[in-house]
């Protein structure tokens, strides 16, 4: 396999927005960013890749697997962190774990319980009862557990960073956001200049 992700002629139609024939590949060993102005279809594209939305047309392959016919295998290989919480507000933390763990055959329940204790998150609390910061910690260490099941050294490094240097994490997150917005603004300016010509 040379490509981890292959998106071909991906399309989605809404009443007020259409995403038409998006195609790209993500080769093995590379990092990719989706950059564009608000409303350009970045989140829609990611949700289509994850099969969270039904597509109008096109195909998506993740690690050579079709994202619809082999959805469970695809999702067992992915860890995704959104900028908003997608868990039901009325779920308890243990229900969140239950909903995630079914996709991952190597899920470590004991490690999850240990991390809840380390971060002082009560397993019986509802998602809506957690602060925004606690919700992001929950999502962050869910992804960390996924990484641990695939690459133990990387997962342990992430836990070490979370535990030893929350300031570094905040700095890295802010830095990444600033870079993404800066690039987005530059691209928007270039697009406007081209339209003026």
Labels describing this entry:
four-stranded antiparallel beta sheet; alpha+beta; 7 helices; globular; 197 residues
Please provide a written account of the structure.
The protein has 197 residues and is α+β, with helices and mostly antiparallel strands. It is built from seven helices and four strands. A four-stranded antiparallel β-sheet has the order 2-1-3-4. Helix 4 runs antiparallel to helix 5 and helix 5 runs antiparallel to helix 6. The longest helix has 31 residues. It is globular, with a radius of gyration of 19 Å. About 11% of the residues have low confidence.
Low-pLDDT parts are 151-171
Separation of termini?
43 Å
Instruction: State the total count of DSSP E strands.
Output: 4
The general outline is: globular
């Amino acid at each position: 396999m040379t490509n981890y992700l292959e998106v071909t002629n991906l399309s989605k139609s809404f009443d007020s927005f259409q995403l038409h024939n998006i195609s790209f590949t993500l080769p093995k060993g590379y990092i990719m960013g989706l950059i564009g102005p608000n409303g350009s279809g970045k989140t829609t594209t990611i949700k289509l890749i994850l099969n969270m939305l039904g597509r109008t047309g096109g195909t998506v392959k993740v690690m050579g697997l079709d994202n619809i016919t082999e959805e469970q295998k695809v999702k067992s290989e992915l860890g995704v962190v959104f900028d908003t919480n997608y868990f039901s507000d009325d779920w308890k933390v243990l229900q969140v774990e239950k909903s995630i763990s079914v996709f991952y055959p190597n899920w470590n329940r004991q490690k999850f319980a240990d991390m809840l204790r380390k971060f002082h998150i009560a397993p019986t609390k509802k998602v809506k009862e957690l602060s925004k910061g606690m919700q992001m910690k929950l999502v962050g260490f869910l992804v960390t557990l996924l990484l641990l099941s695939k690459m133990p050294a990387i997962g342990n490094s992430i836990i070490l960073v979370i535990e030893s240097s929350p300031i570094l994490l905040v700095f890295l997150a802010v830095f990444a956001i600033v870079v993404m917005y800066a690039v987005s603004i530059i691209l928007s300016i270039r697009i406007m200049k081209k339209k003026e010509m």
